Amino acid sequence: MSDVKRGVIEVVDFYKSFGSKKVHEGVSFYVRKGECLGLIGGSGTGKSVLLRSLVGLEKPDQGQILINGVDIAPMREQELVEIRKKVAYAFQGGALFDSMTVYENLAYPLREHFQYSEKEIAQKIHEQLLEFGLPGSEGLFPGNLSGGMQKRVGLARAMMMHPDVVLYDEPTAGLDPYNTKRIQESILSLKAKGVTSILVTHDMPTVYAVCDKVALLQNRRISEQYTIDKLKQAPEGPMSQFINGESA
User: Fold this and answer.
1) Mind listing the domains of the chain with CATH numbers?
2) How do residues 90-99 score in pLDDT, each as one tens digit?
3) 188-193 — which CB contacts under 8 Å span 24+ positions?
4) pLDDT tens profile 121-132
5) Looking at the whole model, is its pTM more than 0.85?
6) β pairing state of 165-169 and 196-200
7) N or C, where is the chain less crowded by C-beta within 10 Å?
């Protein structure tokens, strides 16, 4: 049996195929409370498949996915509703509702899952937008926001229910240095509150800035894993080659 005390997130012997295409064969890792794991690897190695599996959007063919010691792999959709309140997925593009204002986007999960008054919702949204450096944006539509602002609004919405875990899918992709820095600051702020996270990215400066450890997904499994301190002294191998652009 898995040692559930090891991590808030624990993936054990994870296998996944789509038809004849094998994506994962025996992937295992864990993330402790308040840690951020950087998950890196070439395009098409199944990083996003793993993230989607952690909220039940994909099912493993074999293996366990434990969140706070509970295996979500066999759960039905109805059972996953409670898990998704505690595990937020920050999608690459922000995944905002284009026809809704920033205010309505942030209000949506609160109205869907809680019985707050509109006054309470307004106060929570005001506080959240302040925290993410977005005051005064309530009435704007996603189409009026820059790419960086869209991602920060998406992250603010993901945090409206105060989840224990946040899964970041390429949160800094396509951003300028200023907005990249703002996203990094948001991730660090959430870590300081004890939020556990996984960061899927190709942005190694952000990995060094916010992660506690980094794992390389390669050849359908985790080929190497280091703490950030150890990574700086890592011997020549698959991860070093990947970071330096010497292997796919």
Assistant:
1) 34-53+76-243 (3.40.50.300)
2) 877 667 889 9
3) 189/131, 190/159, 190/166, 191/34, 191/35, 191/36
4) 999 999 999 988
5) yes
6) parallel
7) N
